[in-house]
């Protein structure tokens, strides 16, 4: 509001485009989202500041809409990863991506489109607007991480499976084509090694007690499964392919968890 001075160094260029008309339409009363000295978004006063958490799995994508003020989860939804049409498992998807530069760009495009629709659906459920999402975080195995960012993935198919980047990244969401607040960032947690990616980093941060005196195993089961053995502050991690169990390869009786999997429904005592 006009009663307070913002401690900021600059305004995001995309946010700057809308700043003047927005301030006037809100009678000079607004809520600013500031990140590391940068104004990344403005909203009317009062308004919510929302966060988007994304688990980018090989088969499924999960999204969570969070109220950053209260920490409350406002909406959650899971969808099929549309990249599955170009390869059900990690290796076949990498093979598709390295055929030509356009193939990798196609995989990036379809997943970004899916994330944008996921954000719209989550906001609709919570009665919010996508412009209220001022921060986002995404995790996934190393291949999904690289395909989202448009990074080279050919080296991931060859031993020793070296990632193009392992450290945490903060990228302007708009640079990837994500339609949230104009200056919002997408934070990507660090990959560990090989196919043990940022999704398992999140598992360890959220659940693992590295100081426990006992031995602990943390397992993230998915198309690409990661397993960590934790003992006396030391962590040993590996990954393995669990795709056939989820994708329906060579299943004689049954099918994957998809539309049509529920054969019948019976309600008793109601």
TrEMBL record:
Gene3D superfamilies: Domain of unknown function (DUF4445) (3.30.420.480). This is RACo middle region domain-containing protein. Residues 50-207 form the RACo-like middle region domain. Pfam families: RACo_C_ter (PF14574), Raco_middle (PF17651). InterPro entries: ATPase_NBD, Corrinoid_activation_enz, Raco-like_middle, Raco-like_middle_sf, RACo_C. Residues 215-268 form the RACo C-terminal domain. The lineage of its organism: unclassified sequences, metagenomes, ecological metagenomes.
């Amino acid at each position: 509001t006009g009663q307070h001075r913002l401690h900021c160094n600059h305004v995001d260029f995309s946010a700057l485009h809308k700043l003047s008309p927005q301030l006037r339409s809100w009678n000079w009363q607004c809520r600013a989202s500031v990140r590391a000295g940068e104004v990344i978004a403005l909203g009317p006063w009062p308004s919510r500041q929302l966060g988007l958490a994304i688990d980018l799995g090989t088969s499924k994508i999960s999204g969570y809409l969070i109220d950053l003020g209260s920490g409350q989860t406002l909406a959650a939804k899971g969808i099929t990863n549309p990249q599955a049409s170009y390869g059900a498992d990690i290796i076949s998807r990498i093979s598709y991506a390295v055929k030509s530069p356009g193939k990798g760009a196609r995989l990036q495009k379809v997943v970004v489109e899916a994330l944008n629709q996921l954000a719209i659906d989550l906001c609709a459920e919570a009665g919010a607007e996508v412009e209220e999402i001022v921060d986002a975080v995404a995790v996934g195995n190393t291949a999904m991480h690289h395909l989202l960012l448009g990074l080279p993935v050919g080296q991931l198919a060859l031993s020793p499976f070296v990632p193009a980047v392992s450290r945490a990244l903060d990228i302007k969401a708009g640079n990837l084509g994500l339609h949230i607040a104009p200056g919002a960032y997408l934070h990507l947690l660090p990959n560990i090694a090989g196919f043990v990616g940022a999704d398992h980093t999140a598992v360890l941060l959220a659940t693992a007690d590295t100081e426990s005196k006992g031995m602990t195993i943390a397992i993230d089961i998915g198309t690409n499964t990661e397993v960590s053995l934790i003992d006396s502050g030391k962590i040993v991690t590996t990954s393995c392919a669990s795709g056939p169990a989820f994708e329906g390869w060579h299943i004689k009786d049954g099918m994957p968890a998809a539309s049509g999997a529920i054969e019948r429904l019976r309600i008793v005592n109601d």
